[in-house]
Design goal:
The structure is a homodimer. By secondary structure, chain A is α/β, with parallel strands linked by helices. Helices cover 35% and strands 27% of the residues of chain A. Chain A has two domains: 3-70, Arc Repressor Mutant, subunit A, CATH 1.10.10.10; 75-266, 3-Layer(aba) Sandwich (Rossmann fold). In chain A, helix 7 links the parallel strand 5 and strand 6 (154-157). The model of chain A has no long low-confidence stretch (mean pLDDT 92).
Chain lengths: 274, 274
């Protein structure tokens, strides 16, 4: 295989296996090439990936060494995407009766979810994480996109006890927005004890739902490794807020008391950038 | 930019924009290169992608021309992945009381979902499709993975009327397995009239749920462009079966009357291969 073809092949190989340590011998055998040639190829790929902001290529030396592709989308690369998203979210017809906020169409765009997943994967790349968790339904595409870039499994908390999952743990939690009580359930076999869990969700006001997931983690002796939300609402007082340590990509507030006019801005992931 | 770096950059650019027509001028401007050089690069990428089974690179000539990457995973590439999946699915502890089949852990693997999405994207690459549809909850990762590879939006049917989505259409349907009546709902604004819809789901027995989605499409004057299910159950008689035209990746049946011992085999996507 020629170098030019090999570069194409290695690029696609690395991109489909993020956060996976690939020994240089794998490439050497795959292409029947010397390790020194493979190293040169990787140097070229690394330079392009880092220049374009696609991600980092981590090289580990030694017998157990190899190369690992870590997809990235830092705040500077992410900001234009999020600013465009803010404009789309500011459309006045997104406010539904009762103050609900319609973003289902936005969550239905896999390419955008992929970008958002890369942003969360960047934000939490340095943490030790075993699984990505969300509660059904709207956070699911964000959880999968994030987990795909981190090469982690997804654990899905259900809002009811679903009969097809075997024995399960349920907790009650108070949803911040309307002070109503809900139930969430996680199958016993779905999460190992002592897992380090990255929680992601689509929307957060006071943080009742995320707080519920954290309580559920205690039942499994599991730990929170981080919290990421696509949209956080600013319509919440400091006293009401149940959660302070999280990453948000978008912040939404209302201009008028009726709440029909939205102000949508980049979230705390971009704080300190302007 | 050197040719070697350009090949890496073009590969990652194409892979992140599947089923999108990219004019050659976009590349020419992006890299400050002549169109003839770009064409040569694309020929190299095309050869590698097709040899490795990553996908096809479709080149359209003329003023409105350009290049389009179509991710592929044909039956020959897919079979080893599905055979491994069959072995995992055959584990006896997957059968839960009531004859339910536990696959939540499998659905929680984003890399596998990505492969499965590529298989469905291959199977339906030739059809005209506007959106990918599924019903919550377990089909969601399959729908997103499929839609990502086809560059299409996802439309999610809910099992209850969710207050945050505005006006909606509901239908009742009979679930084949237990002859019980359920409701599914789709927001009016979620689907345009006359859309061509690819329906995907995680599991199908008689086809009641998929049939329900098809009935819902009629309410929107929309059309079925195809049906793909990850697992189809063979424990259903010909008369019971509501659906005949679909693609399945896995077939599951039971050996014994109690249904504790599963037989899991590749689905109809692989028919005629052995």
């Amino acid at each position: 295989m020629k170098r030019s073809a090999r570069l194409v092949e290695m690029t696609q190989y690395l991109m489909t296996k993020p956060h996976t340590l690939i020994p240089l011998t794998t490439f050497a055998e795959r292409y029947g090439a010397a390790k020194s040639s493979i190293s040169e190829d990787l140097a070229i790929i690394k330079e392009v990936f880092e220049e374009e902001g696609t991600g980092e290529l981590l090289t580990l030396a030694g017998a157990a060494g190899g190369v690992k592709f870590m997809p990235k989308c830092g705040p500077d690369k992410a900001l234009p995407v999020i600013e465009e998203l803010c404009t789309v979210m500011e459309q006045p017809d997104r406010v539904l009766p009762g103050g609900y906020f319609y973003i289902t169409d936005i969550l239905g765009q896999p390419a955008l979810m992929n970008d958002i997943g890369r942003m969360f994967a960047s934000a939490f790349a340095g943490r030790e994480i075993d699984v990505v968790m969300t509660v059904e339904t709207k956070g699911i595409p964000i959880a999968y996109a994030t987990a795909a870039h981190l090469n982690l499994p997804v654990v899905l908390v259900r809002r009811d006890h679903v009969v097809t999952e075997g024995s399960a743990v349920s907790i009650n939690y108070v949803s911040g927005s309307h002070k109503s009580i809900h139930t969430m359930t996680l199958a016993r076999r779905a999460l190992k004890e002592r897992s380090r869990v990255l929680i992601v969700d689509d929307f957060m006001r006071a943080g009742g739902t995320v707080h519920g997931m954290i309580e559920l983690l205690h039942e499994f002796n599991a730990m929170v490794a981080g919290v990421g939300v696509l949209v956080e609402s600013e319509d919440v007082s400091k006293e009401e807020r149940l959660l302070h340590d999280y990453v948000s990509l978008v912040r939404v507030g209302t201009k008028d008391p009726g709440g029909r006019q939205l102000v949508v801005q980049p979230g705390n992931y971009f704080d300190g950038m302007k």
